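Researcher: I need the complex structure. Ligand is FE2/S2 (inorganic) cluster. Inputs:
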Amino acid sequence: MPDNNGLDDATAPYSGPKAVDPPDVEPRLEDDPDYVTRTKFLSLVALAGGGAMTAAIVVPIVGFAVAPTLEPEVLRWVDVGPLKDFPEGETSGIAVAGPAPESDRRVFVRRKDNKLIPIWNRCTHLGCPVNYSSGSDAFACPCHGGAYSSIGLVTAGPPARPLDRFDYKVVTPGGKDVELANAKDEDRLLIGRPYSIDEDEQPFELKGPGEPVTGVLRNLYPTPGA
Ligand code: FES
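Model: Output:
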């Protein structure tokens, strides 16, 4: 009998239960942080599909709306005929071919008091073609009641600014620049770059329909080529 007061001898070899290695357990896929469940996968597919469809609709609309306003106008002088075709005291409507088919324009050439103003027939409200009435010597838009004076200043309706105008110059048949006051009937009228004006006829870079050239709202619209 060992004399240890009932306790095992600490120096004796251990004979109790022993630790064993845990059994091999297959790791669960759900515990992998990179594991994608079917529900999660379908949600991601739906999100990606929705995003692609939204982009397919929105991107062309935004591009269509913004791109034309950002493209600088290509300046090209267009010979629209001899000066005798634009008699003093009259406003004559002509077609002006632009650098591309979509930039063809209809222009009213007003010649009065030795002053010549080529006026674009595009309404500055939403772009409808305005008509000129020789009886009232004024322009009117058939779409929403926009009205303009004989030189294109707004007199009534919703247009945001006066009718746009074009640069012009007069040249001899040989191509030499000549002042309008000294020009002869056979000299040629050339129409150039369009531009916008305010009610004081001050020139501004060309704006699109609905875009004002003065006031706080003008800052909402980019200037082409700026
Ligand atoms: S488009 Fe001319 S008034 Fe609206």
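Model: Summary of the prediction. The chain has two domains: 29-70, 78-212.
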